[in-house]
Design goal:
The structure holds two protein chains of two kinds. Chain A is α/β, with parallel strands linked by helices. Chain A has helices at 5-10, 15-34, 43-51, 56-68, 82-87, 103-109, 116-126, 131-135, 146-155, 172-193, 199-222, 232-241, 247-266, 292-298, 313-316, 327-339, 350-362, 377-392, 409-423, and strands spanning 72-75, 91-94, 138-142, 161-164, 278-283, 303-308, 367-373, 397-402. The chains are: A alpha/beta, B alpha/beta. The complex binds iron/sulfur cluster (SF4) (2 copies). Chain B: This is 3-hydroxyacyl-ACP dehydratase.
């Protein structure tokens, strides 16, 4: 018996199926990550977190639950304010949904032409494969797209579901709605945990989460050096781990990594030669272990210098104003900060285009890959506008529509290699 | 001058071109078969070039095989762009319809790729589609275009999916539509799809049409009619990719 089998069994995980999953994931990780040349030493932390993905961290969660009575909150989207979760002394983790699982079971409950992300979180639950999902006392969804909105109704029958209503516009009324939703979430948390969120606890939490964002911001500033000191794959992995590791430990580790990056840059060392074509990824979120596109891209003679994505800059670009003293001031600061998110679910959403153009400039990208999950309406719709604006700015771009399957890898390779040849 | 071989390993056929300076001194086309590397091995008995540039879906296979000490690779997009410019220096737009994929490429005046489109996963609108339909109508593929040109009327085929298009063809047949008319309908559906792909990259003359389907007179004629421009068909449309690969080698090795 493996060292975590008993724990997994208690969580009602399907052990044989889970073992199969871990094997595939391990191999995948080896091929895509460990095979990289000149990796940073600090990446060992990430390798450990990842190789122990369903072990160590889940064990920590179980201990926090049993010994400290803390609650675990699962999320799928960057709209759920982690500050409140932490202020209520609960733990927030992003549920991955980056791989196909339990397809047959899922397609009995939701349409086949649903985006892979939604199918994945349903599938992991139905196939009893995810100890994170099983550890959750509450799973918070949000009404960002029709697919999710409706899927949560079904998901709610098999998991402890709570849904926040995200507005679709950013006017005063929408802000009022969003503030009310934040307050409603606060009450829900207080009821669930039995802890009252105070100005003091929230202030502390705001700083914790801001520091996490600042650490990734620092990383993003450093990675634009030429030669690039860190691969896009590794940077993506850092963003992904940031969703489920302990926030303070994560912040420390990322800062340590950044120290190393600074030294590396000073020595003029990179993971790819100077002048390697630089690409920006933009669009749908890439949850663990959705590494297909970054891997194909970086095996095609390019480096990824930024992610305009929720698993990327959209999650960390804006900080919460720390000057608030009263609870109400802080709630206002949270409301404003979260309404700055430029998810494609908003209409209109011109901020996103501006943000992409700025990011392309800051990262000195030679081109942009617009990543869209098959059947994702909001991002597929925005692709046209984004492409047009990039064209006007004379930045080449290409739309990649795909899912978690591997059948199109060869096709993707040809297209991306050709794109890289084009921007060279 | 150093000899440079360009090899285009496609899903259906392998083409090879050897350049001595700007002159093509060898060219050959053979089926890919299930063992493309064996085919390449045979090929290397005939050609003896110090540099090889591979393109097509089998390019990496050849590069990694160790069959030849110096194999570089380029994508089909770049190979077709360079090949088309080599046979027709005025080329600004390139269409390639091959066995299993279709691509449309637009070039800047200096020959650099400006934009490209490729069909995705399925074989809709490719040579495979025509081949499948010709078989269904029991017409040899080489004659399929001429056969369609005998049509008196063009029924609409809505589906681009090879499987569903066949169903449509069968139901048209059941309604008494002549095989030639159905063939024209099938050709027209390829033309429509190709047109929209070309429109997405932008059509600047000259338009060079490469790949096996460029030999089909019905596709060419109807595409010209739809676009309202004259299309350039190279003497050997299937060899353009291989030629382009070799051309890349000329630049790369300064030969
Ligand atoms: S893309 Fe939109 S819905 Fe998806 S995680 Fe980001 S903010 Fe949430
Ligand atoms: S990828 Fe698109 S469709 Fe899927 S959950 Fe996100 S917004 Fe919705």
């Amino acid at each position: 018996m493996g060292k975590y089998d008993a724990m997994w069994e208690k969580l009602n995980i399907d052990l044989p199926a889970h073992e199969g999953l871990m094997e595939v994931l391990g191999k995948f990780y080896g091929d895509i990550y460990l095979s990289q040349q000149g990796r940073l030493q600090g990446m060992e932390y990430l390798d450990l977190v990842l190789s122990e993905i369903h072990g160590l961290r889940v064990k920590e969660l179980q201990e926090a639950k049993q010994l400290q009575g803390r609650k675990v909150i699962g999320t799928f989207c960057v709209f759920v304010p982690e500050e409140l979760t932490i202020a209520a002394n609960a733990i927030q983790i992003g549920l991955c949904s980056g791989a196909d699982a339990g397809k047959e079971q899922v397609e009995k409950l939701i349409p086949r032409n649903t985006c892979a992300l939604i199918k994945s979180f349903m599938g992991f639950k139905l196939a009893r494969l995810c100890p994170f999902t099983e550890s959750c006392d509450l799973i918070v969804g949000e009404t960002t797209c029709d697919g999710k909105k409706k899927a949560y109704e079904t998901f709610g029958k098999i998991a402890p579901m709570y849904v926040m209503e995200v507005p679709q516009r950013k006017s005063e009324q929408d802000r009022a709605l969003w503030k009310a939703e934040i307050l409603r979430y606060k009450e829900t948390l207080e009821k669930l945990t039995g802890n009252t969120i105070t100005a003091q606890s929230l202030k502390k939490a705001i700083v914790i989460v801001n520091n996490k964002r600042k650490a990734i911001q620092r990383l993003n500033k450093l990675r634009v050096a030429d030669p690039v000191p860190i691969s896009g794959r590794d940077a993506l992995l850092i963003n992904q781990v940031g969703f489920y590791d302990d926030p303070e430990r994560f912040t420390n580790q990322v800062n340590l990594l950044c120290d190393q990056l600074e030294e590396k840059i000073a020595r003029g060392e990179g993971v790819a030669p100077q002048g390697t074509p630089r690409l920006l990824m933009s669009g749908c979120p890439m949850a663990v272990p959705n590494w297909k596109l970054p891997y194909v891209t970086e095996s095609s003679g390019a480096v990824i210098v930024g992610e305009e994505s929720c698993v990327g800059t959209r999650n960390i670009r804006d900080l919460v104003d720390e000057s608030g003293q009263t609870l109400d001031e802080m709630i206002d600061a949270l409301t404003d900060r979260y309404l700055k998110i430029d998810c494609a679910c908003f209409t209109p959403n011109s901020e996103r285009v501006d943000n992409i153009l700025n990011l392309a400039k800051e990262t000195r990208a030679d081109g942009v890959l617009q990543y869209t999950l098959l059947f994702c309406q909001p991002y597929a719709q925005e692709n046209f506008r984004v492409e047009k604006s990039l064209q006007d700015a004379e930045i080449p771009s290409m739309v990649i529509e795909t899912d978690y399957g591997m059948e199109d890898v060869e096709q993707l390779k040809t297209r991306i290699e050709a794109f890289v040849e084009m921007v060279k | 001058m150093t000899l440079i071989a360009g090899i285009d390993i496609g899903s259906r056929s392998i083409e090879a071109v050897v350049l001595d300076g700007d002159t093509v001194v060898f060219s050959k086309k053979m089926p890919t078969t299930f063992d493309p590397l064996q085919q390449c091995r045979e090929l290397f008995k005939e050609i003896n070039a110090p540099h090889v540039v591979a393109t097509g879906y089998g390019r990496n296979l050849l590069a990694e095989s160790g069959l030849h000490p110096d194999v570089q690779t380029v994508t089909e997009i770049q190979a077709y762009a360079l090949g088309a410019r080599a046979v027709h220096p005025e080329a600004r737009t390139i269409l390639d319809i091959g066995g299993q994929d279709t691509k449309a490429i637009s070039l800047l005046a200096n020959g650099k790729t400006a934009k490209f489109e490729m069909n995705d996963r399925c074989a809709a609108g490719t040579g495979k589609f025509l081949e499948f339909m010709a078989t269904a109508l029991q017409i040899p593929i080489e004659e399929f275009g001429d056969f369609a040109l005998q049509a008196t009327h063009c029924p609409t085929i809505n589906s681009m999916c090879t499987v569903f298009a066949e169903t449509e063809a069968v139901s048209l047949m059941a309604r008494g539509e002549s095989p030639a008319n159905i063939a024209l309908g099938l050709h027209q559906s390829i033309v429509n799809r190709t047109k929209s792909m070309l429109t997405r990259v932008g059509i600047t003359p000259s338009l060079v049409f490469a790949g096996g389907v460029a030999r089909n007179p019905c596709v060419v004629k109807n595409l010209e009619k739809e676009l309202g421009i004259q299309i350039v068909i190279p003497d050997n449309p299937d060899m353009v990719g291989a030629r382009g690969a070799a051309q890349w080698g000329r630049k790369h090795f300064n030969a």
